[in-house]
Design a protein that fits this description.
binds D-sorbitol-6-phosphate, gluconeogenesis, 6% helix, Jelly Rolls, RmlC-like_jellyroll, mainly beta, 45% strand, binds zinc ion, single chain, glucose-6-phosphate isomerase, 6-stranded antiparallel sheet, glucose-6-phosphate isomerase activity, globular, 184 residues, 2 helices
Length: 184
């Protein structure tokens, strides 16, 4: 007898993952207080402005060893005092855990920082592929005029350490200087 071939429970198309057990979380400007340098420009913007959203499929409980997660982050175009809209950024709580990122749509920059606070960066564009080693904090900025979407996959026991970045930030910022993205 033939075995039935089932429909998938989730479908990933363009920059959208839909289906069973897929979650969406959003970050508005008001959730990102303190990450941009220009506090006055920040205060003059609408706190309800949507900065990014993350669609994720987390098939096992956070902290499970041996599992893997998948997510798509979409960052809207915009800036605060010339500093591009960006993710909060984090080290992993299990600091040696690694991650893949790959560009789907739009233009951006992946900003990386090691524990010695050395910063480097990689361009993101549709098809760009990024291996983020363990012990490296990661943040993405949208440097384009359109939505930037990228996919990510990371171990289910990685966790997130947002505190270190909330306290000390990244050692460099990505600023629009006369239309050129500059890491300063
Ligand atoms: C998780 C992975 C991404 C980010 C997402 C939002 O390890 O790196 O899914 O969570 O891009 O960034 P952040 O810094 O706000 O978590
Ligand atoms: Zn991560």
């Amino acid at each position: 007898m033939d075995t039935i071939i089932n429909e998938p429970k989730r479908v990933f198309r363009d920059d959208h993952l839909g289906g069973e057990g897929v979650d969406k979380s959003i970050r508005k400007l008001k959730d990102l207080r303190g990450i941009f340098k220009d506090e006055r420009a920040f205060e003059n913007m609408d706190p309800e402005t949507l900065v990014y959203e993350v669609i994720s499929y987390l098939p096992v409980k956070e902290g499970t060893q041996g599992g893997v997660y998948f997510g798509v982050t979409s960052i809207f175009p915009g800036s605060v005092g010339g500093e591009y809209f960006m993710t909060k950024g984090h080290f992993h709580a299990m600091i040696d855990r690694t991650e893949f990122y790959w560009g789907i749509k739009g233009e951006g920059v992946l900003i990386l920082m090691d524990e010695q606070r050395r910063v480097w960066a990689e361009k993101m564009f549709p098809g760009s592929f990024h291996y983020i080693p363990g012990r490296v904090a990661h943040r993405v900025a949208n440097t384009g005029k359109e939505l930037l979407s990228f996919a990510a996959s990371w171990p289910s026991d990685a966790g997130h350490n947002y505190e270190e970045i909330a306290r000390n930030g990244f050692a460099k910022r990505l600023i629009d200087i006369n239309g050129v993205a500059s890491l300063i």
